Amino acid sequence: MRFSSFLGASFSAVFNRVAFGSLFILCVLISSSNASQQTELTDWLLELRKDAIARGISEATFDDALSEFRPIKRIIELDRNQPEFTQTLDDYLAKRVTNTKIAKARELLEEHKVILAQISDYYKVQPRFIVTFWGLETNFGSYLGKYDVPQALATLAYDGRRGAFFRKELFNALQILDEGHIARSDMKGGWAGEVGQAQFLPSSFLNFAQDWDKDGRKDVWANEQDVFASIAFYLTSAGWRNDITWGRQVILPDGQDFSSLVKNKKRKTLREWEAMGVRNPDGSLLPERNLTARIVTSSTSDLVFLAYSNFDSILRWNRSIYYAASVGRLSDALR
Fold first, then answer.
1. Are residues 324 and 318 in contact, defined by beta-carbon separation less than 8 angstroms?
2. What is the pLDDT of residue 288?
3. What pLDDT does residue 289 have?
4. Residues near 279 by Cβ (< 8 Å), separated by ≥ 6?
5. DSSP helix/strand/coil, 292
6. Backbone dihedral angles phi then psi of residue 250, each to the nearest 5 degrees
7. pLDDT of res. 22
8. 204-223 burial: b if 16+ Cβ within 10 Å, else e
9. Beta bridge partners of 295
């Protein structure tokens, strides 16, 4: 064998041994990391189970819901990429408040007008707003979500970005199961743990879900009467007024800086805003001049709103200005 061939063969053998050794070390490190992560998850679940039982959750309910828990990667991705983080307000409204949705809302407002009138009279919330929330949350009950609620909430609790918040919601979800409001296999919902046709978080279900037809169940999954009453009760509990609307879109005068008023959420009467040059989009004067309102803007849009007190009630339902604006846009179409 020539020396060059011998040298080449030797180098190849050494390289293969080094490569194999590196691969072996990498596999050991990965295995060690996976084992560490599994131990961390196991310890977390044991502590979570202990805490749940101390709060009155039955062992059977906890084990049935979470004994095979593994964090769901897709849930974390959705939490990091919510529409309010990735869309402009104009795009959000265009996708959420379509002509199709407006037409369907008008149809259902008429179809359910009798029961809606009764619920509206009792809770003091206008029917068009009840239908608006119903439509925006689940497209009028047609899509309740596909995620296993306890597993989704456990993922978000374990992830840690808002771990304490979702840990409490997880315990609330387990309480709902423990109380028998819904079967374990049927507890599907949104990626953040929202349930039913109103997409209530478990805490909201426990606080606001209503049994309108008095059948002994607060059925926000299949009973539209309970759904409507639950939406209305939530809003009235959040300070809703049925003698005013949500607010209105307006335009601001050129050359005047409203930024500090927006930032400080300064409330003025519509008469005072009008004196500062605020007008309806068509340039006309504002109505209801004794109402107080604040100006709301978005960094992603030229749209400007005067927000009445009901706007803040909407924000108690969902803290997104995008969402509140979509409630305004759809409800206006139903007037």
1. yes
2. 78
3. 80
4. 250, 251, 253, 285, 286
5. strand
6. -140, 175
7. 53
8. bbbebbbbbeeeebbbbbeb
9. 306
